[in-house]
Amino acid sequence: MVEFVISLIVLLVGAKLLGEVAERVGLPSVIGYIFAGIAAGPMLLGISAPGDVSAFAELGIILMLFVTGFEQGNIAELMKNFRAIFTVSTMGYFIPYAAVMAVAMGFGFGFNQALLLGLIMSATDSGITLKSINSVGKLGTRAGKTMIGVTVMDGTMGLVIFTGVMAYLAVGALDFVQIGSVVLSILAFLVVFLIIQKLVPILMDQVEHLTVEQAEFSFAFIFMILLALVAETFGLHGIIGAFLAGTVLARSPIAGTNFIERVSSISYAIFVPLFFVWTGLLLNLQSLTLLAFAVTGAVLIANAIGAYFAGKLSGFSTQENLLLSISMLPRGDINLILVSIGITMVGMNGQLIVTPAIGQEMFSAVMFLVLFGALITAVMLKIFIKKEAQ
Fold this sequence. Notes:
Elements: H1 2-24, H2 29-40, H3 54-72, H4 75-79, H5 82-106, H6 111-122, H7 126-135, H8 142-171, H9 176-208, H10 215-233, H11 238-249, H12 259-282, H13 290-313, H14 318-327, H15 333-342, H16 356-389
């Protein structure tokens, strides 16, 4: 227990110190947080492991999306941009997917292996994306709100694609029954959410009459966790449930209090930094290959191009298109989860879908993409804001 507490203190202090350094040189604090994880992880000092803070990291990403949903998640407002959200999400997903597959097959990967790598590297990271946009004050803009919608769209669309691809790799054919069950599961979650949404105002009225301290705060926090768990139960990422919980509570009596300021303070003081530290702890750049550099370049360029032209098709200005392009670059925890599943997946013949050697190449490529994606996003946003100011 003592070692755990000391490790936690070291990680938090390191994150805040390197976050301050990053801010002073004009980069977002998340870059400092990630480097704190790299420094403390097995690649350098070896004083911490990802498992030490994984629970804190999971809560950090849930809290981040909850705060975003509370502050910016007006569903009716987001639906006004549905066409743009759908276009940016689909083009920003499938164009990089095709690019990664082409590069992987050029490096000698088989079709199935390239299909798996494309699946792993195409998903964008909502946590780093939204934190980066918010750090430059653009989350409330039309492009920022579009990216919030893309976060939700990617979560649902990505689940269907993930199910289809993984089923194909496992059995050698598309399993439409399994894909259909996933779609029904998503629809069932939406029905449950709509029912819960109607019940929350009634429950909040009852909670308001309680005299025990911080009853509203406790109820709101429990509601956020429960909806995240409900989303997980139906096969979605918990962050979608947390985001929707924020949108519901934003229309409740608690919105008139300083509730969200307190949640945001706790989140960004402890849990959100530890999420990015956890990302850094997972990185190991010692096993990089040429493939890592090639697919990273391919996915970032294709992502930026796809998002830019999706914005043009949706009638966005050049400045908004550039912001969309930059915002679609980061990768993070979802890619790490996907690669962990993919490289350990067994087919119908009882053999791994990819060999251990190729699995290690894939893992290294994703690690490099996570780090470089965060860095290039920070640099590009800095340049974007400077040019916009001029």
